Amino acid sequence: SQTIHQWPATLVQPVGSPLSLECTVEGTSNPNLYWYRQAAGRGLQLLFYSVGIGQISSEVPQNLSASRPQDRQFILSSKKLLLSDSGFYLCAWSAPSPTGTYYGYTFGSGTRLTVV
Amino acid sequence: EDQVTQSPEALRLQEGESSSLNCSYTVSGLRGLFWYRQDPGKGPEFLFTLYSAGEEKEKERLKATLTKKESFLHITAPKPEDSATYLCAVRSNNNDMRFGAGTRLTVKP
Q1: Chain A hits for B100, Cβ within 8 Å
Q2: What pLDDT band is residue A81 in, cutting at 50, 70 and 90?
Q3: Which tens digit of pLDDT belongs to each residue from B57-104?
Q4: Quick check: A110 and B100 CB within 8 A?
Q5: A59–chain B Cβ distance below 8 A for any pair
Q6: Is the CB of A107 inside 8 Å of chain B's CB atoms?
Q7: CB of B33 closer than 8 Å to CB of B100
């Protein structure tokens, strides 16, 4: 069966420090991968998505970046964190949609990031 | 631009009191409407996908329905363990999964 791992679960970082959040998927090949951020009481905001190794699409201009060095690995990074980067970060995967049929996402357990 | 609006923002029910959550959407070419359940501090859990108007899906006490403008998540005889935030999302030709802000459901014993 497919599983998704996301770590760390919580993170407290000072302003200006770097960030690296990692997500890995097991039990599937060539998944679509996503990074979302969820602010308190608000909907999920798509940050990045990837349909393959090295293919990254950004939805929101910001000081965050994403990389996909391996088929089932997705990394969210920042060189210098801002206070506004605080939030709940979620990684997700879905099956590819070559025929145009779209499937629900499977989310990781999330990372609570607090920038102080 | 595609939009998803969920109502109410919060709903408090007594155990056994059935009700419905609403998800209204405006999209260019609906390719799927999705319902998720999210418990505090956790990632959303996928519940249902609906692809066309008139379609219905059921799982235990939950039933999702879809029209051309909205979807309902009906909760029959809810239990306290049904307490969670329920998220609606749509996928269209123009974007990836766009989420509503959610309905926070509390079921009192």
Answers
A1: 43
A2: very high
A3: 999 999 999 999 999 999 999 999 999 999 999 998 766 789 999 999
A4: no
A5: yes
A6: yes
A7: no
